[in-house]
Design goal:
Radius of gyration of chain B: 27 Å
Distance between the termini of chain A: 17 Å
Oligomer: heterodimer
Strand content of chain B: 15-25%
Structural class of chain B: alpha+beta
Structural class of chain A: alpha/beta
Number of strands of chain B: 15
Strand content of chain A: 15-25%
Shape of chain B: elongated
Largest sheet of chain A: 7 strands, mixed
CATH class of chain A: Alpha Beta
Order of helices and strands of chain B: HEEEHEEEHEHHEEEHHEEHEHEHHEHH
Largest interface: A-B, 61 and 48 residues
Largest sheet of chain B: 6 strands, antiparallel
CATH class of the largest domain in chain B: Alpha Beta
CATH topology of chain A: Rossmann fold
Number of helices of chain B: 13
Number of strands of chain A: 14
Chain lengths: ~300, ~400
Amino acid sequence: MSILATQDTRVIVQGITGREATAFTKDMMDYGTRVVAGVTPGKKGQSIYGVPVFDTVRQALRAQPADASVISVPPALVKGAALEALENGIRLLVIVSERVPRRDTVEILEIARERGARVIGPNTLGLISPGRIKLGMAGGPVDDVRKAYTPGPVGIASRSGGMTTEVANLLTTNGIGQSTCIGIGGDPVVGSNFLDLIPLFEQDPETKAVVLFSEPGGVIEEHLAEYVTENRVRTPIVAFIAGRFVDEMPGVRFGHAATIVEGDRGSARGKIERLREAGIHVADAFSDIVRILKERI
Amino acid sequence: MRLLEFEAKSILKRYGIPIPEGVVVAGEETPVAPFSGPAVLKAQIPIGGRGKTGGIVIVDKDEDLKERAAALFATRIRGYRPKKLLIEEKLDLKREFFMAITYDTVAKEPIVIFSSEGGVDIEELAQGEPEKICKQHFTFRDGLPEHKAREIVAETGVTGKPLLGIGAVLAKLATVFIQTDATIAEINPLALTASGQLIALDCHLDIDDDALFRHPDIAAIAKDESRIEAAKAQTEFERQAALIDSVDHRGVAGRVIEFDGNLGLIIGGGGASLTAFDAVRAHGGKPANYCEIGGNPSVKKVQALTKHILSKPGVEKVAVIMNVVSNTRVDLVARGIVKGILEAGRDPAETVAVFRIPGAWEAEGFKILRKYGVRYCDRTVSIDEAARMAAQSAGRQSA
């Protein structure tokens, strides 16, 4: 098993006629993802790599039932696209678009919660369950994905899209495969953060350990430490926190919108301490992830 | 973006939240108080903690307002020199309260924090006297109508006439939070004056940069770079680097921060830059700079950045490290690096401490690097192994 999606998941792409969406639609299909329809208002009747384009989600689903939607539309249109998908019963949204207003994200999540749907992103490259499905841009074209990702027992969740592939590549290079690899998105508020994903990995019989790639900023790691202690999470977790030097530069925002240390809040040092107290293994060097994992799976 | 106090207060006023009578003056203007009696001079800087650091000055009736204002303009407060001062009437206060609305990023909902004691450090108060604080989430669907706001206020023991007034202000602040796309909306303190009025003495509004397209008035304020004097001035090296990033819109070669080491870094993207920078330092390397390249930067941009980093005195070598890339082309980065080095009159084989970018178009990229004798590694070499090689190479240089 993998989490979130399987090889049978039927997928639509909202904004499919956009340049970026067209490119990743092809990459997804090459990897075996069942992209059944696309939606761009006003572009009904077109076809993208054989995928029929519809004006609305309702029309698309009438012709092609689907479970998941990958959304790649301009930031101001994301909320509308997401609500359209949710109202039509889509249960998994992967929001690739960047620079989505925080209020819109939270409003989307309110509706998703009511409808029992799950959201990945915004500002995510997507997710990959190696050998089964790829949603979004994660990993790039199929040849690149196959070089970096291999099926196996380790789940990955990462606050950085690029580093999702890097972690997978590190594991693959060292003979360790992956179950599901998720870029959670770089914004302060994302649909599914570490706290949401750990229980899914914990329930997945195939996942034997999880690697988290993290950065300074926010308080999710601190809350995760609490969760792991209180719920006696048994799946081994290996965390890597990049950007220890950011602690020396409070108030400066790095790579992702969420990567900022405010006063003492969100420091790498604080996160590492809290995670270790909860029994989570923190790798000091990036390649230590492999050694720690090998001792535990 | 954080609004200055007077900018935030003008928004409060628009939403019917009372603010003190006051006037804003710039450095070149002669300050005149539009009221009689003592005045409060407040430095308009985009950071909290002004009160404790000399940013707020009380001027008595018989003191020289002009002189005191000039002195405040000349003071650097928490790294900022004020470009404007807010002059307000000094009020006679009976009691102070705290109210804030922000996002709980874990629960993914807006949250209200109210305290029956204001003008204090709320974190400290939460430790010592938690009963004075009430926190509660709300939804965008329901908003925060007055009766709900009042419930929150009453939880802290506030009663009588102030309860109604404070509940109304909190409900209005929630409207401000929602309608201006704020990420923080805080009034601290909300004062109850001797005459029984509720007035917002200080206000902190942070507006979501990604929502500015919906707020042209606030976007116009954000564009005005002259309103704030930057705390840490950009170095000339950083300023030049920012210019390079803006020459074209293809990809990013930016966020350059100068450090005082000897190893130039051309690293990317976001997470990998953080990883590589830590790793170089962990292995004893001394970075000359931080940066983030990503997207698919043009050859020209990478070339210019490379040449620029090599122009920094003492920098003999550059390390080029990225995560496994899918939308950045390895060959274009390789070409940019080589061209930049040649343009700087150096030898690529000597200058590149390590080149570690695996991924899209790597075969083409590695071919270019081989031609110039540059040391590169493929995806089997991890980011921190590459950083170790770079640190060692730079160490040999300075030894």
